[in-house]
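Reviewer has doubts. Consider these C-alpha cells.
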Amino acid sequence: MTLSPPLNLACLADPALTPRLVVKVGSALLVGGDGEARREWLAALVGEIAAARSRGQQVIVVSSGAIALGARRLGLAKGGRGSLADAQAAASVGQIVLAGLWAELLGAHGLIAAQMLLTLEDLEDRRRYLNVTATLGRLLDAGALPVINENDSVATEEIRFGDNDRLAARVAQAGAAQGVLLLSDIDGLYDRDPRLPGATRIPLVRGLSPAIHAMASAGSSSGLGSGGMTSKLQAAEIAGHAGIALGIIDGRPVAPIGQALAAGAGTLFVPKGRKTARKAWLGGRLRLKGSLTVDAGAARALGRGSSLLAAGVTAVEGHFVRGDAVSVCDAAGAVLAHGLSEYDAGECAALLGRHSRDHAEILGYAPRNAMIHRDQMVLL
C-alpha cells in the first residue's frame, strides 16, 4: 500500500488506497451495560460499512461480543468472564446471537454475511493460515462480507489471541488487506494517560519505538473487553510487518467512522514497508517455541541481511524442533527477529558458539548452512 501525503485516517476510507479494509468492533461498543446489543449503534455502523462497499471497498469485520451477549442469556456473573468455563459457555450461546445480528443488519442493505470463527493455531500454523487466506479471498470475490471472531468456545489461555485487536491485524495479513480500523473507547493514542492534564493525542505514528510503547495503557476501561492500548500497539506492529496501515478511532458515537474522519480525529500508524507474504506471517506470529540469544557481532550481521550462524549464538531457550518458529534476541533481551529454526533445541545447544567447520563432527552428520537461514527469518 502506498499512502500519498497528507497522511491521515482518510486514507483508510479511500478505495484507491485501501481497496480492502478490516474493521474491528469491540464488546464495549457492541454490547450495552444491560448485556444486550446496541442495535441502533450497530445499524448505523452497518450503514457505513454498506456505504464503503458501494464506493468500491471490500470490507472484513472482526467482531467481539459473543461472550457478553451469551453471559446475559445464561445469567453468568462478571460478563461471562468469571472463569474459563463460563467464558466458553457464554461464547457458545452468544455467537449465535452475534452472527444473527450481523446477518440481519447487513441483509437489510442487500449484503450477505459470512461467519468465520478462528483460533490462534488457525493463523499460526502455516498450512491452516493459507486455508484461511483462500477462504477469505473466495468469500470476498463472491461478494460476501466475512464477520470474524475468535472461537472462544474452545480457546484456552494457552491457545488464544486474548483480544480481537491482534486478531484483526492477523486477519488483515491473511486477507491481503491494505488497512485496519480499530473502533475503540478512546479516540487514539495519547502521549500519556488521556485522563491526565495536558495529555495530547498523537495523530500519526511512523514506527513503534520503546517510547511509543511506554505511552500505552494495558487495561480496558470498560470491563467488557479484553484489550487495551497495549494490544492495539501490538496489532499495529503485526499489521506493519505486512505493510498494512492501522487506525484507531473513537467508536462510541453513532456512525463513528464518518464522525472521526470529519473531525480529523484518531491515530494512524503508517507501515515502513511491505514484506513478502511469508515473512509478514512469520513476523506477526504471537506464539514462538523458543529463543536464541546472539552476541553483538551476530546482531550486526543480521542487520546486514545475513543468516544466523551458530558461532554468534550464546544461549538457547525453549523446546523446539526443526521448522518451529523462534525469536532471536540480543544480550539485553530485545527481540531482533523471528525465524524458523534449522535444528532442534538440543542440536542448537550443542552447536552454540562453534564454527561451522566443527558442526559435522559434533552432530555426526552433514550440517545445514545456518541455524536460521535468512530466507526463513524476518527482522523486527
Remarks:
- The radius of gyration is 22 Å.
- The mean pLDDT is 89.
